Amino acid sequence: MEMSTLIKLPFYAKTALLLIGLYVFVSILSIGQDIILPLVYAAIIAISVSPVVSFLVKKKINRAIAIFIVLILALMFIVGLILLLVSQASMFSQAWPQLVLKFDDLCDQAINWASGWLGVSIRQINTWITDTKADLWNNSNAVIGITLTTMSGVLAAIFLTPVYIFMILFYQPHLVEFAHRLFGVANNSQVSEILTETKTIIQGYLVGLFAEFAIVAVLNILGLLVLRMEYAILLGIVGALLNVIPYLGGIIAMGLFAAIALVTKSPIYIAYVIVLYSVIQFIDNNYIVPKIVGSKVKLNALISIVAVIVGAAIWGIPGMFLSIPLTAVIKLILDRIEPWKPWGFLLGDTMPPLVKLDLNFSGIVKKTKRKEKSVKDVTLP
């Protein structure tokens, strides 16, 4: 008689094992970020440019040469964008001393106001500021060490990512075949479906994200030029880059715009900038994101915010950018596995929008035409 080896664990034991496994998994992601991050970035970029490589291969171009051409074109675009930002940043750096003086004047005014409002002497406030600066300076060695370590990791990722992209694209057929063999012949259709949809989600999301970045950057630059703000091009591009980070990026960008307006213009320009950025965010959230990005990644707002915070906690700023596409892929996998479908539902967004703006101009035009016709039908005595 064969004895069953299946052991049914109670709920608390399953929960404990799940939490332990989650802790180990997150620890591995955090400890191995210098190895994992370049691979994840390379995989996402490789998936996004693979259609171009496939097109060139169909044109009888050697696969390695096709990948090399695509990487060179992508590198030229990135270098051009960096040169544009550097040229604008150089103008900003030249005006930095004047900005520092203006900021010091504003700080003095703020100290005088706080002294009168709080009933604290200016000397006490200055002493507190001096002590705070001293504490920051004493801790600067640790901060510099962390910064150098982070920069070394970033530089390593910059040099390793193109190599990973080339290898992933070159061995793409081999990796796809490995996935099919790993899950067996019986699951071939499911594996193909998941791989195809993952590729579609990542490609659509990145294309939509780039389109959103370009549109928001143009709107930022035009709005800041209308307000005659200095460094409009630099601020517009930086604001569009920050806007890529869901929810939190917009708040940071608005604070940056307001700070520059406070230093370079009169205080009333803070209100102008806030109104401008609010209008741009309204257009972005109600028209650009639903039409271009929202249809590609259907995650609810709560999960999106949590994913961004968790990504930042594990991988810092790179994790904030990766959080949404990775969460979308996780949702896709959860939706395809029967016991995990409730978790996929949890990540998704089935609720109607909080605010829905429907501008039906066609109805207004028809009503106007009917009124004009009725006026024409009236004959004067």
Automatic annotation (TrEMBL):
Keywords of the record: Cell membrane, Membrane, Transmembrane, Transmembrane helix, Transport
Q: Name one GO biological process term.
A: transmembrane transport
GO CC terms in record = plasma membrane
Give a yes or no for keyword Cell membrane in this entry. Answer: yes
Transmembrane annotation, as ranges: 12-29, 35-57, 64-86, 142-171, 205-227, 233-262, 269-289, 301-334
Major location, coarse class? membrane
- Give the signal sequence positions: none
Mode of membrane association: Multi-pass membrane protein
Where is this protein localized, as stated in its record? Answer: Cell membrane
Q: Which domain of life is it from?
A: Bacteria
Family classification:
Belongs to the autoinducer-2 exporter (AI-2E) (TC 2.A.86) family.
Record's protein name: Permease
Organism (species): Haliscomenobacter hydrossis (strain ATCC 27775 / DSM 1100 / LMG 10767 / O)
Q: What is the lineage of its organism?
A: Bacteria, Pseudomonadati, Bacteroidota, Saprospiria, Saprospirales
